[in-house]
Amino acid sequence: MKHYQIIFSPTGGTERVSKAITQNWFQIDTIDLSDPGTNYTDISFDKDSLVLIAMPSFGGVAPQLALDRLAMIKGDGAKCVIAAVYGNRAYEDTLVQMEDYAQNAGFQVIAAISAVAEHSIIHEYAAGRPNVDDCKKLTEFGDQILEKATSNQLSKPSVPGNRPYKKAGTGMVPKADSSCTSCGLCAQKCPASAISSITPGATDKGKCISCMRCVSICPVHARKVSSVMTAVAAVAIKKACSVEKANELFI
């Protein structure tokens, strides 16, 4: 059985979750959904494959950009597990949304996971997660999924969420301050190609998906979101984030 992971991880949290889940899987090939230069229509799998599809939850839904790229891939009956990674507030409709897109792409969903990682904007929420205990639990989940995939007892999991999905909210668009050196790294690494390589201080609001990659990778910390809006958002979700959420397996 061949093993793969298809991940969209702008700031690294989803990637850390994916690595923990697949810790005991062997010879894993990775497909990065954040790369705008990849021709996803050329990617296909065979039935003798187990694929982890992992994405962050932005406001209770998956990033549409990542879903659109997933939709181009040919699952061709490959077994898959979907993983929604969220910042300790709620993942709401993310898993059912991912399930629908995965199935429409030809994958057979045999398991689903919700996992907590440090919030990509308000870092005080779920700070340091996934931690050592999280990773241990996620590896156990991965082992259970691997066992199911090889057992040929491929029952469909009951995945939480609602259809129709909730509407995606309006995200915060990072801007560069006067410390920007115009190195162009943010433009090079932006999953949505929303930053100009000529004028990297500017951001195309119509393309930006508020993934915060540019903020996390800026070598001089020049890119930021509004401190006022961040403070307002922190207060708005404080109650929901006050209780530490557990990782979940649906199998």
Overview of this protein structure:
The protein has seven helices and eight strands, in the order βαββαβαβαβααβαβ. With 251 residues, the protein is an alpha/beta fold. It folds into two domains: 171 residues, Flavodoxin domain (Rossmann fold, 3-Layer(aba) Sandwich), CATH 3.40.50.360; 51 residues, 2-Layer Sandwich (Alpha-Beta Plaits), CATH 3.30.70.20. The strands form two sheets. The chain has a six-stranded mixed β-sheet with strand order 2-1-3-4-5-8, sandwiched between helices. The longest helix is centred in the middle third of the chain and has 20 residues. It starts with a strand and ends with a strand.
Describe how the helices and strands are arranged:
Layout: E1 2-7, H1 13-21, E2 28-32, E3 49-56, H2 64-72, E4 79-86, H3 94-104, E5 108-116, H4 132-151, E6 175-176, H5 185-189, H6 213-217, E7 223-224, H7 227-241, E8 248-250
Parallel strand pairs: 1-2, 1-3, 3-4, 4-5
Antiparallel strand pairs: 5-8, 6-7
Helix pairs in contact: 1-4, 2-3
Radius of gyration: 18 Å
**Average pLDDT for all residues:** 95
Number of strands: 8
Number of domains: 2
Topology as H/E string? EHEEHEHEHEHHEHE
Notable characteristics:
Rossmann fold; two-stranded antiparallel sheet; Alpha-Beta Plaits; 251 residues; six-stranded mixed β-sheet; alpha/beta; 29% helix; 7 helices
Q: How would you concisely characterize the structure shown here?
A:
The chain is α/β, with parallel strands linked by helices and 251 residues long.
